[in-house]
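dumping the sequnces here before i forget
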Amino acid sequence: MIRRVSASAALLLSSAAALSQQVPGELGELMRQLAARRHGEVSFVEQHFLKLLKRPAESYGELTYDAPDRLEKRTVEPKPETLTLAGDVLTVVRGGRSRALDLKSYPTLAPFIESIRATLAGDLPTLQRLFTVDFAGTAARWRLTLTPRDAQVAKTVSHVRIEGAGSTLTTVEIVETDGDRSLMTLREHP
Amino acid sequence: MSARRAAVLAAWLCSVAVSAAVALHARYITDLSAFLPAHPTPQQRILVEQLRDGPASRLLLVGIEGGSRLARAAVSIDMGQRLRTDPEFASVSNGQEASADRDRDFLFAHRYLLSDAVDARHFSAAGLATAMRDTVADLASPEGLVIKSLVPHDPTGETLHIIDGLSHIPAPQLQDGVWSSGDGKRALLVAQTAAAGSDTDAQEHAIGAARAAFDTAARDVGAQHLELRLSGPGVFAVASRAGIERAVVRLSIASSAVIVLILLTVYRSFAALLLGLLPVATGALVGIAAVALIFGAVHGITLGFGVTLIGESVDYSIYFFIQSAHGDAGAASWQRRLWPTMRLGMLTSVCGFASLLPSGFPGLAQLGAYSISGLIAAAAVTRFVLPELIPRRFAIRDLAPLGARVTAWMEPAGGARSRVPWALALALAGVTVGALVLARDTLWNRELSRLSPASPAQQRIDAELRADLGAPDSLDLVVVSGASLEAVLRGAERAALTLAPLTNAHVIGGVDSPSNYLPSLATQGARRDSLPPAGELRENLDRAARGLGLDSGALTPFLDDVEAARHASLLSPADLAGTSLAAGLGALLMHSGERWSALLPLRTAPGGASDIDLAPVRAALAAAGPGTGGESASVHVLDLKRESDALYDEYLHEAMRLSLAGLAAIAALLWFALRSLRRAALVLTPLVLAVLTVAAVLALCGVELTILHLVGMLLIVAVGSNYALFFDRREGADSGSPLTLASLLLANLCTVIGFGLLSFSGVPVLEALGITVAPGAFLALLYAALLIRHA
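..and the predicted 3d for all of it:
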């Protein structure tokens, strides 16, 4: 049983790129471009529009990606905090404390992080496993709308919208079912 | 005559039957308590409780190795789920906390009683503004999604604050959802048994449950080639009990077989063989029964010692058969001529072992009681029962020629006395004493763990698992004792507060306290009383929210919750049921009779020395003084390892003092019985020399002596005194019988074999006895033969 699971997992991993190549058209082309990029470093501004808050809360920081599965989000303001996703382990460092969470233990948390990471990796199979993927635009100027497949996740998250140009992501917007949303704007380092 | 015979046999059978009944119903214990004081000081009592029942004693460390990474994780998850539903385990951790939801619900529901941030200032407009500023920042962080639903109820973030306070302990790394070792090759799980560590039966049961859970999990998952590694005090206790039991059974069989073979070869008589084993069996049985009656329970180590008694008590029947069989007048003559010598030898042994009786340590006192009663019983059976049971036409092989040959070899020049052996003896004494003096600093091992029956391989696995887990060693702890739960919880709060500056100064890494799980009623009450009435809180909230851009209208649930909390009842331990907090609290609280103890394990500072410097801890606690009012509690700082080693050291010293007293008693007995100081000294010299030689050789071989070696030395004197006395007697008026010499040779051979086998038992404590007594007994015979003859 386990052997079968791990075998199919291995198959999925090794053939992610191969599968992307078989997707025809603009989405396939986009995934190929994204997968070709091994490293990325951008700064971000994130705005949280919450009903609780009369004005949006903002945060700033840097986002680093290293293929195939390492994503680091360093928030500088308002509270220094570092989130590192390596494999399945999410490490949160904040206030001098470090906490490691296993993504598998937090299925509701996984899609937010995986939506960005899998997009950066050009890993369409993972995206399609977690979301229904709606593609609009061209490989040069695109928009992905990801709707969670997991019912539990869908209770809180309406959809994730990622926009980009070529292999560069420009915005990530997470829209919650209660109307609250966060908008992350990414900017390449000059 | 036949009436007397019937009376003797009836008395014997009766005592055997009673002893057997007592031994069968006796309670056998194998934990460390044999080495813990029977009448401890208050400090020692805490130590003993900790070693026997404390949280550290209930730890079961589990490692899953081999197979694939995913298989290990799957088995760990499955195993964890099984063990969590098993009432034998108080808590099970492997990175997957099943009770996390229940815990969160509980903490959320009682946040205003549990959060140490709650005081009157916290709910002023300024206090609320400070707390909520952090919450707004949190909302903008990735955690915002998780906490967002909490904010309307808990805008000051009390729930998160409590969770942060409880989850400070560094956990092992996660891999595939479960804890794993740093190299990723071993999945880790830690369980705490519900039963105390000293309850070896319960520990064995729990270990069996863990193994079964592993087997089932591995089968369910379909994983192969996985290996289970278990460790912890309970595992050690169970393994050592099994080890001692196995060794006792194996060695009893082996030494019995060898001795039976030798005796059969020598006697050429089945009757003699069977009769010869009667004193041995009777002695062992009476010994166990006596210990059970005197102490209420028999330590496993005493039982292990029982094997050694075979070596000595078999001597008695050997003396009797050989010396009486071909003597001129048989049994009656033996009883008259030689029994007094053997009786004196037996009394000498009894004197030696009697010195152990006053020991404050049950293990030693039991050894003493066991040996004394066993030897007296064996000698009595030899003296009174064997003569009645000897068949009319009883005959064994004539050993006179053998004795004569040895005599001739020993006395080549027609019995001329030589000064050479004594000169050599003097030199030997000088050399051995010199060697022992030189080695005096490293001569004795002062660590209690040296008595641990765990094998080095087991100890290595234990060290590895603990290192992997970043182990909750709990070797240093603060113990707060008092007359009630409330008293010790208050004391624990005070102590934790007192030690907080040391944590900030990185003297210690932190301190865990039961009051983190359940604050005292006083503290809970103070927090509840500090909650402002609804109107006042609403005003404060409005003012604070305005500055932060928070919509105070959305925070109405907060106002309702605080109002409800103002009228909520305070928490008692029962309220924690079903959460992992109950296990956390239970692990840090002990309760026996009228006494409560709260345990506050100290953690080492990150990156600091592995040993905590306890001086500042003691100083801080002493400066804080005892609690005030009627609910005061006493505070002790305990370093489990050092305290237990100190205890053992004291125990070793006591044993040495007692042994020296025993030696003095033996000397006095010999002086009195032989009515000559010179003869008493003559008898003692070879024995002391044998002990010195063995100790010196062991020291030279780098063996660190333990309490068991000391007991072995006592045994050398006990066994050897028989040899020396018989030689002394030969030199007296009634000298000459080569049979006496033959009987001594045979007795010595049996003793050396009996104890020699112990050296191969694989149980460290029994090995220590074996390597001391086997060569010592041989040397005692040799020295006695050479020296007494030439005196």
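Residues 34 and 167 of chain A are 5 Å apart (CA to CA).
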